[in-house]
Amino acid sequence: MNQTNVRKDETTVDALNELLRGELSAVESYDKALPALEDKPAVRGDLQDCRASHETRAERIRRAIEQVGGEPARASGAWGMFAKAVAGGSRALGWKAVISTLEEGEDHGLKEYKDALPRLGLDEGVRHLIADELYPQQQHTHGVIAALKRVMSA
To answer: 0.85 exceeded by the pTM?
Structure first.
């Protein structure tokens, strides 16, 4: 492999690892949020579905990183601040604050996916995974949380 391909592979792995760290942080955030919603089964169900979606995406990204010869990140990333905020006061702040915090994290996730797409020019399979599968799933979880926030504000 020539030097240009090595750099492109590293760029792809770096972009994928950023997304992976974000997904790991999202799972942590949902794990911290769920106990605050024990008395809201419908909301809790939506959050469990969002959490499962993020967990599935993390696994898909891990496999993609391994397929291009990279080492998947093990620790969470930028959403970590959201996980900490949720953990720090989920019960004390109430479920509305938890939903608002999760929506901020979902907003951040959308931005991470948008920012990653231009960096994934090397591998058409990776590009397809992100653009056609994972990004739409991120849009969906964002939509679920945004809808919950709208309902609670009404």
So the answer is: yes
Cβ proximity of 73 and 81 under 8 Å: no
Nearest by Cα to 124 from 8, 31, 28, 20: 8
Domains by residue range for the chain, with CATH: 3-153 (1.20.1260.10)
Number of Cβ within a 10 Å radius of residue 139: 14
Find where tokens 């920012």 sit: 115
Contact 9, 122 (CB under 8 A): yes
Express each pLDDT in 9-42 by its tens digit: 788 899 999 999 999 999 998 998 888 888 888 8
123 CB burial (10 A radius; 0-12, 13-18, 19+): middle
